[in-house]
Automatic annotation (TrEMBL):
The lineage of its organism: Bacteria, Bacillati, Bacillota, Bacilli, Bacillales. The keyword Transmembrane helix applies. It comes from the Bacteria. InterPro entries: Spore_Ger, UPF0353/GerABKA_families. It comes from Paenibacillus solisilvae. Belongs to the GerABKA family. This is Spore germination protein. Keywords: Membrane, Transmembrane, Transmembrane helix. The chain crosses the membrane at residues 255-273, 294-316, 336-354, 366-397, 417-440. It holds the Pfam family GerA.
Length: 488
């Protein structure tokens, strides 16, 4: 297989046709130019990727050489083309000279137009790609009441441009990482030099350079390949589709990862308290923002432990329930053929089923199915004696609390932990719950993300970072203070 361009046009075109055989959208257009139209050239491109056919790139190539209207191109010789483009003339369209077939293949597949000229062992490449992409719109997964409404799209360069527009400083660095496989997707990672921890950056670069030699189609592929612990339920990185969140993460010393073809931005490292923070926390007044954060922390505790606490108390520790409430619970559970544990498992399964159905169905139908399905199934379960009203309330409250988590993958991890906690509560009661919570806490304090402790600044205790965890200080003290890293 040849790697260099031949000076004869026939073997070059034959190689292109052999590589891209059975590609009906490959266009090969021959041209004649020069005295008596004796010189030959060929334009090669994919007409599905070069949507703008108005520009004749070969004629423009010839027109750049002479000062007058080129006409049929009879006044241009091969020597003139080689002389002008070897010296990188100021052409109307940005041209690149190539002499390697591997680069030619990659540029053709990315939407470039290639011109082979008989008698020259180089080709002229024009970036002519004009693929339609989704326009910048309001983020679907991260809506806010107050703040920017700019979302990333599936175009890598456009996403980088929007982030650069927010951080206009030469310390803003972006590096490209090419991938192997059939997709040949381009990965980009960015950081703010002088703000990012050098040790964290070194560790990240080491892991990103060890990615499997295969197809990378989405940022979640990278997360799975570079995370510290694969089998933990807790996510070690954050996702966002908002350019303001990506810019804020960079200003806080994070590393962001973008992939061509997806709008998801991966933020590294992702720590526990950051997963419960929303961009709107910084767009609201301090008192309101702290109130919302405390509400979110309470929601975390409810989403994690409410069903198991109910099972433990109703099964082993009924003396902890006030008498009037205990009588109401006993009355509501009369006729229920299942213990509290089985009842909770059934209702949790139904809730998760409705949630998954609501996500997979078309948006107008999905919301209706989620709401109507929950009402109908809940009422039917009570009427049929499958579940008690109090268990329906517990399940619904748990689900609503999990929806208040800003990061979807973090909310999923809480739902995964419910089952082992409910099992411990059903077997050992409150003692089992203590064992479960201690195991979770032990796991959290041992977990790391790119070498940074997951529970920082709580474990290890770093007083300087408590200014922006469960509560945040006024913005005037946060803006003027560089966020410290684990080693500060």
């Amino acid at each position: 297989m040849p790697t260099s361009i031949s000076s004869h046009i026939e073997p070059n075109i034959a190689y292109i046709q052999s590589v891209f055989k059975d590609c009906s959208d490959l266009s090969i257009i021959p041209w004649q130019y020069g005295p008596r139209l004796m010189n030959r050239a060929v334009s090669v491109y994919f007409d599905t990727m070069v949507l703008d056919k108005k520009t004749n790139y070969f004629k423009q190539t010839l027109q750049d050489i002479v000062p007058r209207e080129i006409g049929a191109g009879t006044d241009v010789s091969l020597a003139m083309i080689i002389e002008c483009f070897s010296r990188h003339i100021a052409s109307q369209e940005s041209a690149i000279l190539l002499d390697d077939f591997e680069v030619v293949e990659r540029l053709l597949l990315s939407g470039s137009l290639i011109i082979f000229i008989d008698g020259w062992n180089k080709v002229i490449s024009y970036r002519a790609g004009n693929i339609e992409t989704r326009q910048v719109d309001e983020p679907v997964t991260e809506p806010v009441v107050q703040g920017p409404r700019e979302s990333t799209v599936e175009n890598l360069k456009k996403n980088i441009g929007m982030i650069r527009a927010r951080i206009q400083h030469p310390s803003m660095k972006f590096n490209y990482v090419p991938t192997a496989g059939y997709a040949r997707t381009t990965i980009a990672y960015g950081y703010l030099e002088g703000v990012v921890d050098p040790d964290v950056l070194t560790e990240f670069v080491s892991r990103i350079n060890q990615l499997p030699k295969g197809d990378i189609l989405e940022t979640s592929y990278i997360e799975d390949c570079i995370e510290d612990s694969t089998w933990t339920p807790f996510p070690q990185y954050r996702y966002t589709e908002r350019t303001d969140i990506a810019a804020a993460a960079l200003l806080n010393g994070k590393i962001i990862v973008l992939v061509e073809g997806t709008g998801s931005v991966l933020i590294c490292p992702g720590l526990f308290f950051e997963l419960m923070q929303s961009s709107e926390d910084y767009y609201q007044r301090t008192l309101l923002a702290n109130t919302i954060r405390i509400l979110r922390l309470i929601s975390f505790l409810i989403a994690l432990g409410l069903p198991s606490i109910y099972i433990a108390i109703s099964t082993f520790h009924t003396e902890l329930i006030p008498t009037v409430l205990l009588l109401a619970i006993i009355d509501s559970r009369e006729g229920i053929p299942f213990p509290a544990f089985a009842e909770a498992i059934i209702m949790s399964f139904i809730f998760e089923l409705l949630r998954e159905a609501g996500i997979r169905l078309p948006r107008p139908v999905g919301s209706a199915v989620s709401i109507v399905g929950a009402l109908v199934v809940g009422e039917a379960a009570i009427s049929a004696g499958i579940a008690s009203p109090i268990m329906v309330v517990v399940t619904a409250l748990t689900g609503i609390a999990s929806f208040s988590m800003p990061q979807y993958n973090f909310a999923i991890s809480l739902r995964l932990l419910q089952l082992p906690l409910m099992l411990l509560a059903a077997v050992l009661g409150g003692f089992g719950l203590m064992i479960g919570y201690l195991l979770i806490w032990n796991h959290l304090v041992r977990l790391k993300s790119l070498g940074i402790p997951y529970m920082i600044p709580l474990a290890p205790w770093i007083t300087g970072q408590l200014r922006d965890t469960v509560y945040r200080k006024p913005l005037r003290s946060l803006i003027s203070h560089k966020k410290p890293t684990a080693k500060n």
